[in-house]
Amino acid sequence: MRDPDGLLARAGVRGNPDRDQHFLVDDRVLDRLPTYLTEIDADTSHILEIGAGTGALTDRLLEAGDRVTAVERDPALAEFLREEFADEIADGRLILLEGDALDVDLPDFSASVSNLPYGVSSEITFRLLPEKRPLVLMFQMEFAERMVAEPGTSEYGRLSVSTQHYADVELVEPVPKEAFSPPPAVESAVVRAIPRNPDYEVDDEAFFLRFVKALFTQRRKTIRNAIRNTPHISGLDDPDAVVDAADEELLSKRAGAVTPVEFAALASLAADVGFDEHE
Ligand SMILES: C[S@@+](CC[C@H](N)C(=O)[O-])C[C@H]1O[C@@H](n2cnc3c(N)ncnc32)[C@H](O)[C@@H]1O
């Protein structure tokens, strides 16, 4: 395996935190990351890596999978990767996409393992989750804790419900700052997301996610007041009709205590009674 410090030295870069550049330099963490895929027998035929940096993780992913597509926005790093991995690129085992992970056309990947740029980790994650592929992603610890949180905890919120709508998520490893160069300001954590259908049904996924977002903007209010206060976010024409039709006990809870199944039932009711008829 390529030595992460050697890669940094050959690339001649330091990592610029303003560009979300914190390179993994701990071999043990780097070696473990692909195992979170292989231990669940995930399909590793085509692994997507967002933010390849100097290629320390890319190298491990090439070992674990048949083919890797790596996305990197920084032109100097992309140039270095093209030189460093010239053989793998020539063999067709590594495809390098230079560009912004929020804009590039993503390939039909079978799984992703990425040490994400933290500034855009939410946007990238919600690009990847709907693809319904196993994901092993590094986040800031606080973000990871919110993704996996259960109802009734202080971390539970819109991020938990929206993430768990797509996948079973698990915080598989906390990662200390010292594992990176330069070290980020906060601790990190690896989250594994295994795609699955939720244990509820929603007819209109976009409305469900918008409704949950609306209710969590008023997390200190009861659901009754949150529905009434947020039609500008949920898009409801008639929030009072939803309040009239909904279960009293649920209306008196706060969003942090409402389970995804309860949100889904409420969203279905709201979709039925909360909109004017448009012929
Ligand atoms: C946290 S570093 C990880 C680097 C490498 N994978 C590692 O583990 O050492 C994130 C990488 O993403 C790149 N990056 C930042 N924003 C990006 C974006 N919007 N699209 C693609 N790459 C981005 C940075 O240049 C940096 O190389």
UniProtKB/TrEMBL annotation:
SUPFAM superfamilies documented for this protein: S-adenosyl-L-methionine-dependent methyltransferases
Documented EC number(s): 2.1.1.-
One term of GO molecular function: methyltransferase activity
Compartments reported by the entry: Cytoplasm
Biological-process GO terms, alphabetical: methylation
UniProt entry keywords in alphabetical sequence: Cytoplasm, Methyltransferase, RNA-binding, rRNA processing, S-adenosyl-L-methionine, Transferase
PROSITE patterns found in the cross-reference section: RRNA_A_DIMETH (PS01131), SAM_RNA_A_N6_MT (PS51689)
Domain Ribosomal RNA adenine methylase transferase N-terminal: 29-197
Major localization class: cytoplasm
Annotated SMART domains: rADc
NCBIfam families, per the entry: ksgA (TIGR00755), PRK14896.1-1 (NF011486)
Protein name: Probable ribosomal RNA small subunit methyltransferase A
Organism of derivation: Natronoglomus mannanivorans
